[in-house]
Amino acid sequence: MRAGLEPAITGATATSVTVFDERSLRRHDGPSEDFIDRLSGRVFQTPQRRGKFLWIPLDDPADVPGHGEALVAHLGMSGQVLLRDRSTDDRLTRIRIELDHPDHGALRLNFVDQRIFGSMSIDSMLPTDDQPHLLVPSQVAHIARDPLDPFFDDAKFLRALKVKRTTVKRALLDQTLVSGIGNIYADEALWAAQVHYNQPTETLSRAKAIMLLAEVRAVFAKALAEGGTSFDAQYLNVNGESGYFAHSLNVYGQQGKACPRCGREVVREQFMNRGSHFCGFCQRVRAGSQSV
DNA sequence: CCCCTCACCTGATCGC
DNA sequence: TGCGATCAGGTGAGGG
User: Fold this and answer.
1) Once rounded to an integer, what is the mean pLDDT over residues A108-121?
2) Cβ of A24 < 7 Å from strand C?
């Protein structure tokens, strides 16, 4: 989504903003009038991402220099950002931003979200603790870098796995430890590394933890190359197109089918109020390596 | 302080 | 055709 937005909206001016459902501003500190006022007339800079948060830095308004604000978007479970022409509408559009781009002319951003777990907001930028010259929106400050980020700290992540009293899938889904991993990519990376979702993190050997992190990166790289995971019309890129990673899934949603590695049945269990998909043979809770 | 549960929401689909 | 149950890819406040 970030890559799709960049060439289209960088340098565009937000000429008009409409909020159809104020609940989509759940992460915005203020009423919709405030969101509209602060966004209208601003120029979009290059879109940025950390984990599942996307933001578009805004130029400083002429009368308020050095402000440092961004339009922040999170898709939640069902959000989409669709890049449209001025005449195209989308069902379940919660927020609409009309844009004027010096090269591409009139554009429209439709923020579409069925369940309204996603949001848009205007947020102030803060220095990151590890790279103070790089800024992130205040609501993103507690989110860890993702494993494809050049400043992701492998040693810090491995240390956290040792210290935490939790299980490995919980840790993968904990965006304060490592960001960008959701239920699909957690299950896929765990399968690739042959780790059971309920393996206590402190019993994971260092070698296994390193392998797991490598598999997370491999899953991310493949999913990004294929444009993400689309099961239906709900998960689309900015041009309304489906990603192809769903064709590459080994265990997610594959319950009842054969494990691509050993041929035994893929099973699904309830875990954290969601589905966990794994091979009961390849992925078993193993006795921990004793580390001092 | 750390970890886990649950609330937050709507719409599509399926079985009866 | 209609109705109720079920399901869905995330986050963070608050309780234990």
Assistant:
1) 96
2) no
For chain A, give the percent of residues with pLDDT over 90. 85
User: Average pLDDT, stretch A31-43?
Assistant: 97
Q: How far apart are CA A178 and CA A159, in angstroms?
A: 12
Residues 216-245 of A with CB under 7 A from strand C: 228-232, 234-235, 243
Among A61-70, A155-164, A198-207, the minimum mean pLDDT is found in: A61-70
* Residue A190 phi, psi dihedral angles, 5° rounding: -65, -40
Residue pair A216/A177 in contact by the 8 Å Cβ criterion: no
Q: Closest nucleotide to residue A245 (Cα to C1')?
A: C9
CA–CA distance, A140 with A138 (Å, rounded to integer): 5
d(CA A176, CA A141): 9
- Specify whether the CB–CB gap between A190 and A286 falls below 8 A: no
Spanning CA of A263 to C1' of C15, the rounded length in angstroms is 43
Å from A114 (CA) to B6 (C1')? 21
Give the pLDDT confidence of A185-194 residue by residue, as tens digits.
Answer: 999 999 999 9
- Whether the per-residue pLDDT at A219 is higher than 60: the answer is yes
- The C1' atom of B10 and the CA atom of A116 lie apart, in whole Å, by 8
Nearby residues of A81 by Cβ (< 8 Å), 6 or more positions away: A1, A5, A54, A73, A75, A109, A110, A111, A112, A238
Question: Which residues 143-202 of A interface with strand C at a CB distance below 7 A?
Answer: 143, 173, 175, 182-184
pLDDT averaged over every residue in chain A: 93
Instruction: Say yes or no: Cβ of A23 under 7 A from any atom of strand C.
Output: no
Q: What is the mean pLDDT of residues A212-234?
A: 89
How far does the CA of A272 sit from the C1' of C5, in Å?
21
pTM score? 0.95
| Cα gap A188→A192, rounded to integer Å | 6
